Amino acid sequence: MSLVSKQRPAWAADDAVAARFVGAVVASAFRILPDAIRAGHRGPADVACARQVAIYLSHTCLGLSYAAAGSLFGRDRTTAAHACRRVEDLREDPTFDAILDYLERALAVWSFNGRQWRGRT
Fold first, then answer.
1. Between 39 and 54, whose confidence is greater?
2. What is the tally of structural domains in the chain?
């Protein structure tokens, strides 16, 4: 049984709030400031990679379109599509894949626990 649900989590009802949450989780994992992910410029390579991961997770875990995921991080749909392709390519590295798996599970667990805390299952 997979912990990663394709159903949109309850906490993700507001796209902007959900993107800030995903950005904060990714920033923590990559040890950068959350504001750096939403910055209007590319920034250092580690920040750009973290932003790509945040866009990827917004697209795959939240079910946002490329246009929606990209715009929440100040990027257009083609940049978001590129970010998702890049992250998929980087998943060939077992360490990077393990980090992404951890982040996906963290978002899935948050979603599951959020429903339980509000009395819904």
1. 54
2. 1
The per-residue DSSP string of 49-88 comes to HHHHHHHHHHHHTT---HHHHHHHTT--HHHHHHHHHHHH
Mean pLDDT of the chain: 83
Residues whose CB is less than 8 angstroms from the CB of residue 2 and which lie 6 or more positions away in sequence, other chains included: none
Q: In 3D, which of 80, 30, 74, 72 has the Cα closest to residue 50?
A: 30
| Segments forming the whole domain that contains residue 48 | 14-115
Instruction: Look at residue 25 and tell me if it is in a domain.
Output: yes
Q: How far is CA 112 from CA 50, 99, 109, 115, in A?
A: 24, 20, 5, 6
What is the pTM (predicted TM-score) of this model?
0.80
Question: What distance in Å separates the CA atoms of residue 100 and residue 121, rounded to the nearest whole number?
Answer: 26
Judging by beta carbons within 10 Å of its beta carbon (0-12, 13-18, 19+), is residue 103 exposed, middle or buried? buried
